[in-house]
Amino acid sequence: MKSAKLIHNPKAGEGSEVEHKIISSLLKAGYTCSYSSTKEEGWEKLESGEEDFVVIAGGDGTVRKVVFELLNKRLPIGLIPMGTANNIAKTLELPEDADTIIQGWDAKNIKSFDIGRIYNLKEEKFFIEGLGFGVFPKLMRAMEKESKKEQVPDKKLRTALELLHDIILEYEERPCRILIDDAEYTGSYLMAEVMNTRSIGPNLNLVPFADPGDGEFEVVLIAAAQREQFANYILSKILGKEEPAFFNILKAKKLKIYWEGVHLHVDDAYIKLAKATEIKIELQEDAVRFLK
User: Fold this and answer.
1) Count of domains in the chain?
2) What is the pLDDT of residues 151-208, one digit of tens each?
3) Helices H, strands E: what count in the chain?
4) Ramachandran angles phi, psi of 243, nearest 5°
5) Are residues 99 and 148 in the same domain?
6) Of the residues 92, 108, 124, which one is the last residue of a structural domain?
């Protein structure tokens, strides 16, 4: 494992300065390296076809973008987290320092990562973090207005949490039906999330012990009766405390989910449906492999 293709989001971190630092670290660790920016046409092409692995430098959105372009290549991925939330890197329990990450890579220590295959949804076909309804898509809409403001990552996360806290207190719960195998689950919820990572959004650590390579999703359901509990969990995060989150969790390899509403998210993409739609989801095991 000697040849790397570095794919970098220049809007993450400090642009070209980060690019040079990572390339220097890769060379120091004994790897040869080619480079592509996600902002340039043809970034997904592998120049020689002889690359041993791909290095992604960016946030969760960049990881998603690269993973789905190279899904059939089956190359291991080395992740250098440089986004705001970095939920994928946190799920992989990666260190924050790029040099430490690169020096720790071992071709024998590869972590399998499942993905979700989506049916009945034209806009998106896969997810790597999660798909969900309720308060989180509403938060994403609210954050679109905030995205025009220049904010450092910590400030952006705090802003998201403060907005989410207000949304939880005001959100009207919606009926939801979930079919897992032969079992049907129904109720009214503030949030229904099909998760593959331990956390989503502004580091909502809803399934702290989830394993993204165990061949199962975690379906998190937060009922209207848990509104105060959910709001208090968010308030604790705003105050800098990470309290345990205890919400209803179902395990699933494949499921159908119907939410009485038209707003949802797939990873970091907000989607508005033409009408309420039953969505079918199947787990695709060992679809991605990350170096650790």
Assistant:
1) 2
2) 788 999 999 999 999 999 999 999 999 999 889 999 999 999 999 999 999 999 999 9
3) 7, 15
4) -85, 150
5) no
6) 108
- Final residue in a domain of this structure, among 83, 108, 133: 108
Both structure tokens of 120: 């009945």
Burial (CB count within 10 angstroms: exposed 0-12, middle 13-18, buried 19+), residue 93: exposed
Distances in Å between the alpha carbon of 125 and those of 164, 223, 229? 27, 28, 33
The tokens of 93 are what?
Answer: 């329990």
Q: Is residue 260 part of a domain?
A: yes
**Does the predicted TM-score (pTM) go above 0.85?**
yes
* Separation CA 247–CA 229 (nearest Å): 9
- What is the rounded CA–CA span in Å between residue 145 and residue 126? 26
Is the same domain home to 169 and 268?
yes
Beta strands in the chain (DSSP E): 3-8, 32-37, 53-58, 77-81, 110-119, 126-127, 130-134, 174-180, 183-195, 217-223, 248-252, 254-259, 263-266, 269-272, 278-291
* Residue 200 DSSP label: B
* Residues of the domain holding 82: 3-108
In the chain, the amino acid numbered 107 is A
